[in-house]
Amino acid sequence: MENCYSNLLHDEGKGVLSLILSLIGLNITTSSEQLRDFLKGTLLFVQQTQLCVGRSLWDVVTQCVDLLKEKELITVTSDPQGQRLQVTKLGRATYKGSVDLTYSDLLYRDLCRGLEGLLLNSYLHLVYLVTPYDMISQVKPDWMIYFRQFTLLSAAEQKMSAAVGVPESFVARKAAGQTVKNSVTMAVVSRMYLALVLFSLLKETNLWSVADRFQLSRGFIQTLLSSSSAFCSCVLHFTEELEELWPFKALLKELTRRLSYCVKAELIPLMEVAGVMESRAKQLYNAGYKTLTHLANADPALLSRTVENLYKKQADQIVASAKMLVNEKAAALQEEVDELLMTPLDLPQL
């Protein structure tokens, strides 16, 4: 039988750090003593002599609390009962968004800086902000490709790139093979390169052609797309907890959907239907079924005859699924209407 070990201390203790932040944020524990008592019920406590080499589990708890305090994710105050641990707004956003603690402060700074000159006539700026930090080290930019793609950007997009730290002059010199000595951070440069890959995917949605253009494997681009979609959802929940980042709430909802489906915007509603993938959504759209309402009211027999390689049974399932989605959306809207028309219970009376 294989041995089973706790992963809480894996990757420099990210697991136990996230666990402690969540416990404090959910008010399950409010003191270091309660944290220690909770951890006594974990596999890590049973295996502490093997995994906590040279230190006790109490030392691990103390170090984690100090680190979370240093990152301003929690506050430590004193009261008559001892120390009291409370989560900060940033800490709550971090655990509710499932954001890696390594990048939470960096993400917050990037989002705040992004608000100062957010580009709204293009997805590029938003895509850059949700490009995963942990993917940066996995790519080495091809400078000629970088420069060619950079020159295809609009003036506003190039200005945005310069604002985050990647000016055209830097990319041009690197493409020419020149040594560039300035303050440009390679992590930012690589992140923008990945953002250009994602930006191309959103515009074309053809993974094969994008992989060929950037000379990257299709597997890597698929991983990048999946990671970006997941991270975009995390950033969305992160911003929902921070009032100062309110503009991102509406903007990232649509981008999350675009990255999840990676198709043209008009196809997304059709792909919400069970069993409808990109190719089928294109067929339906071209056949005139452009919305959920079209599909919900379609005749399955006519649908199967109109759309190539669509059997009657599949058409029945698509129409039934579309009807269910339409009914769910209508019910949600009806609830809002009922709530608006309802007389408030606390209405002042004579």
From TrEMBL:
GO terms for molecular function: 3'-5' DNA helicase activity; ATP binding; hydrolase activity. Pfam families: HTH_61, POLQ_helical. The keyword Lipoprotein does not apply. It comes from the Eukaryota. It catalyses: ATP + H2O = ADP + phosphate + H(+). Residues 1-75 form the DNA polymerase theta-like helix-turn-helix domain. Residues 107-259 form the POLQ-like helical domain. SUPFAM superfamilies: Sec63 N-terminal domain-like, Winged helix' DNA-binding domain. InterPro entries: Hel308_SKI2-like, HTH_61, POLQ-like_helical, WH_DNA-bd_sf. Transmembrane segments: none annotated. Keywords: ATP-binding, Helicase, Hydrolase, Nucleotide-binding. This is Helicase, POLQ like.
